[in-house]
Amino acid sequence: MFSFLSMVNFHMDQLFIDTYHRRIHKLRVSLTDHCNLRCQYCMPVNAEFMDHGSYLQPADYTTLIGELQRHGINEVRLTGGEPLLRHNFQEIVHHLRSLNLPKISVTTNGLLLHHHLDFLARSGILDINISLDSLHSHTFQRITHRLGLEHIQHNIALAKAQQFRIKVNMVVMKGVNDHEIYEFIEYAKMQQVEVRFLEVMRIGYACQQQSHWFIPAHELIEKIKQRYELIPVPSPLDATAFSFQTSCGARIGFIASESQPFCGHCSRWRLSADGILRACLLKEEGVSLKNTTPEQRQHLYQTLLGMKPYLRPPEVHHAMYTIGG
After folding, report:
1. pLDDT for 217-261, tens place per residue?
2. Which residue in 235, 232, 231, 233 sits closest to 247, CA to CA?
3. Residue 121 placed within a domain
4. Domains in the chain, number
5. Torsion of the alpha carbons at 310, 216, 184 and 190, rounded to the nearest 10
6. Helix (H) or strand (E) segment spanning residue 250
7. Degrees, nearest 5: CA angle 128-130-133
8. Which domain does 225 fall in, by range?
9. Quick check: pTM over 0.85?
10. pLDDT tens digits, residue range 252-283?
11. On the CB side of 256, how many CA atoms lie within 13 Å of its CA?
12. Region of residue 242 (phi > 0: left; psi between -120 and 50: alpha; otherwise: beta)
């Protein structure tokens, strides 16, 4: 599909620095828009998906990400949809490992994680974010329209036993799961995982209910302070989360995409499963890398640098699961 780009004589090309002097060095790679859950804030029960024939092939990732690496991309996170549903997930990882990237990580709902833990450990991919919005079966089923909570919790325990670095992402929804905040903090302490509380975003399917579900991070922090002391933990300037150590020994974080957007320091691009490279999760516009030459892609990269917003865009109605959250 793509012109061959040799990585034998690796050298650094011009870094990706946009018009606001942000260096782009992180890439979110959506391997599929398919998912085995139907979370209320993400997709409808009858969601429509891309045709598998439109997906990038494993070798395409070597070409494209290898090319981006030459411009300073040094962190890749594999997302979806649910990335572990991709039938050739391990083959794709093999291709990425050949690039010797400093960091590859995975975001997953954890349902299929047990099938891949040994492989990920052998591949040196030890950083896993797991989406988990409830510790109670009935609430989990209400949010996801599926069963499987106990299976996810079991897989988290398996991953911890194999020394994976686990972060649990909880989307906090008023009147749905916000009563579980303290339980998640105790869970973080017991399991020795970092729990991050996410604000519901105004994107895609969530736009219908976002105003009803939304709780700003500062309200959660004030609630938590009623029970625990919070000690700030330093974070990189381009981090999506700000973190605390609690007086009970748990580490927690907050991703306040709505109330405290971090667009001004964002260092990420996003590659969809069908080869669209985007500058922002909240911008549907992007550039298609399919059927392009290296020379054409250099022009597309420069175009994309000019498309990255400095301020958070308003609500957007395209589906987050097609871009990769």
Report:
1. 999 999 999 999 999 999 999 999 999 999 999 999 999 999 999
2. 231
3. yes
4. 1
5. 60
6. none
7. 165
8. 26-323
9. yes
10. 999 999 999 999 999 999 999 999 999 999 98
11. 14
12. beta
